[in-house]
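Give me the fold.
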Amino acid sequence: MRATKSGNRASRQRSYRRAPAYEHPQRWLPVGLAATYTTEGGPLVSRYAGMDWAKEEHALHIAHADGGLVLEGRFAHDESGLDELCRVLVRHGVGRVAIERPDGVLVERLLEAGLVVLAIHPNQVKAARPRFRAAGGKSDSFDAFVLAELARTDHHRFRALTPDSDETRALRSLTRSREDLVETRVALANRLRAELEAFWPGAAAIFADIDSPIALAFLERYPSPSDAHRLGEKRLRAFLSRHGYCGRKEASELLERLRSAPRGRAGEQEAEARRTVVLSLVAALRPLVEQIKLLNSQIAGAVRAHPDGEIFLSLFRDPRASLTAARLLAEIGDRRERYPTNEALAADAGMSPVAVESGKRKVAAFRRACDKRLRDAVATLADTTRHRHPWAREVYQRARARGCEHPHAIRVLGRAWLRVIWRMWQDGVPYDPNKHGNLRRLKAGEG
């Protein structure tokens, strides 16, 4: 989705040169101002820790509630090192640990040890460094100190990690892995199309999708013009029948596409080299396409078996839409306290703008810092439902009538859908059009 045009052109151009700002929603469930103090008024959490994680070893800084140093150290990223790290944190009575990542083996071990983990975005740590230094120095130990100070003084501003259930984490692993494989498939398919356009454009135009099973089978059998010089209508018809072609085009029409395309002028050696490249790309694409198909089947089964699966599946009429439902469920999760308001969910999904206000100038800017995967899933839901759902179509058309471009209108509709989804998710009930107030009012207005 493209960025929304917000404000004047000069301000937009200036904003592109700045680093994107990471903004947490304003109403995260607090780690607990009420739980920070005992009935006698004394601090309940007496020690805080900051951890700068790395691939091979992690820097640790533990501080008293008054900021005094308790311990500094480094721990290797291996089984003995992580065991020792957790023992040290528990032994020193650390209540909260701040770290710059929300997942991974290290975070899982900290949570398993019963520690409260605060995930702080690297941009926020970067912005906090000048508070504690005059020069521009930086080190792992210093970053651990900055994180410990943020945990000590600003812990109420950050959310504590709340791990999802095993079913949700499994579904998230499946959906994210599929997205990564699809990205790789698209890159390889684009490379294959570019290679064909360079010496045999007709082979790229004969079928709609160059990475479809029938197209890959055709290129495996006819990877160059010389391989297809004796291909006629009868042979093509037999090929289509043998590979279960389900398209609506006749063999004569497909053959005309192949022959009417421009002919390349590659020499004998270049044509042979390009033929080898085509076969290599086809060989890489075929198992990739098959594995994506298997993942689709696994995801469909996993989302239907999930306790919250019916909530998200109810948003779609087509049973094949289980992929989008699975992505929504995997990214939102199953911990209701993670998003105490629908505004918090909309902000994390990138559907609400960022307010930039100074004096008389007020601008609603595109929210760049968010869960990109969740934003993509919500945008897919919005773009799908605007074609068939009367309420979604009306919200989208009103946004376009106000002058919003398509990406902006999709975000407006996505934010409206997230209000509905949040309520469904909190109540644990599937989508019911009879409970959708705006839809009922729209139908009543239409008579």
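The first helix runs from residue 9 to 17.
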